[in-house]
Amino acid sequence: MDFIFSLVFFVVLIFTFGATFLHFVPIGLWISALAADVHVGIFTLVGMRMRRVPPSKIVMPLIKANKAGLEVNVNQLEAHYLAGGNVDKVVDALIASQRAQIVLPFERSAAIDLAGRDVLEAVQMSVNPKVIETPVVSAVAKNGIELKIKARVTVRANIDRLVGGAGEPTIIARVGEGIVTTVGSSERHTDVLESPDDISKTVLGKGLDAGTAFEILSIDIADVDVGRNIGAQLQTDQAEADKRIAQAKAEERRAMAVAKEQEMKAYTQEMQAKVVEAQAEVPHAMATALQEGKLGVMDYFNMMNIQSDTEMRKSISHAGETKD
Q1: How far from each other are the two terminal CA atoms of the chain, in whole angstroms?
Q2: Does residue 49 sit in helix, strand or coil?
Q3: Cα 134 to Cα 150: distance, rounded to the nearest angstrom
Q4: The pLDDT value given to residue 212
Q5: Of residues 54, 220, 46, the one with CA closest to residue 133
Q6: Where does the pLDDT of residue 4 fall: very low under 50, low under 70, confident under 90, or very high at 90 and above?
Q7: 154: nearest Cα among 215, 71, 76
Q8: Cβ-count burial 273-285 (b if 16+ within 10 Å, e if not)
Q9: How many CB atoms lie within 10 A of CB 244?
Q10: How do strand 145-157 and strand 130-133 relate by DSSP bridges?
């Protein structure tokens, strides 16, 4: 019984030791490297395990690079992996650049990858240019007619400017700015419709790809549509604004006239009240004058006769007038 227990324990111990050994010493990967004529020491693979670097992430790209004839060593690939780079994509980019006869050292390729750009896509774009379609750009000619223009920009990646160079949004913004400037400097919108290639020539002449990660190969105008008559609309809006200002001023003058009329009516009523008040004092003043002997009786009757004669003449003068 003890012999069987010891045998089982020994088998489990050997199995555990073997599994641990194979984990830290990837014999299969080492044999694959030897078969591909890639010399990677067994202790180098163990060291990768100790540094928590998956050996397959280094050895397989190294085999690929060696078969492609690239001069890349283990330390370069491992250092790039530890820096957070994509080793497999960098090696693929190096192979693609070699096949396309593009000069791309490993250091530059690693720097592009660490900068967050897709280095393999950049190499592919250097060989096969990419077409960027701009959104619809609205521009107004000098005669006030709006044009809606869509352009296609053919660009090629510039490997030397990938690190620190501006991306596609900058290209689109600059092309849109060039379209607006070109159309805005045209006297009539028909000039642009007759020669849309003038936009391409003007925009290309401004060197819009300076400081970007691309090289502009061509700018093609894909579509030109006539939009609104902005000039006429602005004139209409201005006329409407002038009309509202004039109406406001007229309303202000009317309000002032009404206020002045009310003021005059109040003044007239005040004067009439004073006249009525003064007329009410006349009999009292005449009575006082008669009592004090300042006015004689005959003077009073003469004044009354004159007043009656005046009223009679006024009645005769209005006798021929017809009432409305």
Answers
A1: 147
A2: helix
A3: 6
A4: 80
A5: 220
A6: low
A7: 215
A8: eeeeeeeeeeeee
A9: 10
A10: antiparallel
